[in-house]
Amino acid sequence: MTLGVMALSSMVQALLSPFFWLVVLLVAVQHHRLARTRRRFLGIPAEPLWLSVFQATLMGIMGGCLGSGLLLVLGVSLTNAGLPYVWPLAIALMLLSPHLLCFAYAGGLLALSSLAFGLPQLEVPQLMGLVGALHLVESFLILLSGHRGAMPVYLRLGGGEVVGGFNLQRLWPIPLVATALVAAPYLPPGGIEMPAWWPLIKPADSGDAAQHFYYLMLPVAAALGYGDLALTSSPTRRSRRSALTLLAYSVTLILLAVGASYRATLALPAALFAPLGHELTIILGRRAELRGPWRYVPPPGGVMVLDAVWGTPAYRAGLRSGSILRTVNGRRVARREEFAAALEAAGPYVELEYTTPGGEWRRVGLRCEAGRPLGLILVPEAGDAPSAVPVTVPPLVAWWHRLFRK
C-alpha cells in the first residue's frame, strides 16, 4: 500500500510535469501533420484534432501506468542503465534508417560494447530490462489503438501493380514512474524493507553487506510510436499481429534481463537478442505484408470500399473498409465507372446494396446533397497512380543526394 501511494504520487507529478505536456504538444503536431496529409493527398477530412490527441493521451496514460508498475516490479533502475548514451546513439542511428530510432538497437549496441570493451560502463540487465518493459508497453498500446487513424493509400509494388492499403502511424505521450538506485550505509527514515525476491533484476553490487540500497521514484515523460502498412489484412488485424509479435519479443527480452542479473553468462544473449530479435520481428512482419494475397483489390461482381470517410453520409450509413458495393438503386455495378455513372443517374436519394466484410448482405438508403461527396474511397483499379509509396531511402543518404544533386 505504501509503495502504491508513493507510485501514485510520482505519477501525478509526471502528469503535471511541463515535459509531459511538451510531449503532448509534439503528439498534437504529429496528428495535425497527418490530418493535413489526408486533406492534401486524399481531399478528405480527418476526425477532430482534439479528439485524436485526447485519445492518444488517454492511451498513453494507461500505458504509462502499466509501464511504471512493470518497472517497479522488475526493479529497473535508471542509475546505471546508460540512458545518457542511449539517446545520442539512437538519434545517430536514425540518420541511417528511421526505424533504428529505437532503444532496442542503441541499447543492444551499447550493451555489446560494454561487455566487449568495458565502455561505456553500464549494467546490461538494467538496460535490457528497460528496453523490454518499454516494448511491452508499446505492444499494449498497439493492441488497443494501433489501428486508429489509419490512412488509406494506393501503393505501387515491385511488380508494377497498384494495390490499396493503409498506412498506420501512431504516437503516444507516456508518463512514467522510474526509479534510481542509491547506496548508503543506512536505510533512510521512512524506507521500506522489501521482500527477498525483489527486485527481480538485481543490482550489480547488491551483495555489498556494508551498504543499504534503496530506490527513489522519479517522474519521467517519454513518447512511444508505431508505424506499419496493412496490405493483406485490415488495420485492426495487422496491428493485433504486430502487437502479439512485439509482446513475445518483449517478454523474452525481460526474461533474459532477469536471468542476466543472476548469471553473467546470459548478458551476451540478452544484448544480442535486443537488436536482432527486434529486427527479426520487423522483417517477418514486412515479408508477410509484401507477399500477399492483397486484401484491397477489385473483387468479382462488385466494387470494394477501401475506406469510408469519417462523418460523411456513407460513414454514418454503416459502410466500412472492406464492404463490397453490389447495386445502386437496383442497378448492378461491377466497376468504379459503373458505380459513378449509377450515382450520377440516381438523383438525391440513393439506395445501396452491399455485403459487409463478413459476407452479410445489407441495404441502406442515403441522401446525397448537391456538392457534398458521398464519402467513399474505392480500391484502385488497373491504370490508377499510386498515392503514396514507402520511404526506403535513409535520411542520411537522401540529404547527401540532395546536397550533391547538381
Task: Give structural notes.
This protein is of the alpha+beta class and 406 residues long. The protein folds into two domains: 2-290, no CATH class; 303-378, PDZ domain (Pdz3 Domain, Roll). 47% of the residues lie in helices and 19% in strands. The strands form two sheets. Strands 4, 5, 6, 7, 8 and 9 form a six-stranded antiparallel beta sheet that branches. Strand 7 (349-355) and strand 8 form a beta hairpin. Helix 3 packs antiparallel against helix 6. The chain starts with a helix and ends with a helix.
Notable characteristics:
single chain, 406 residues, alpha+beta, Pdz3 Domain, 2 domains, six-stranded antiparallel β-sheet, 47% helix, 19% strand
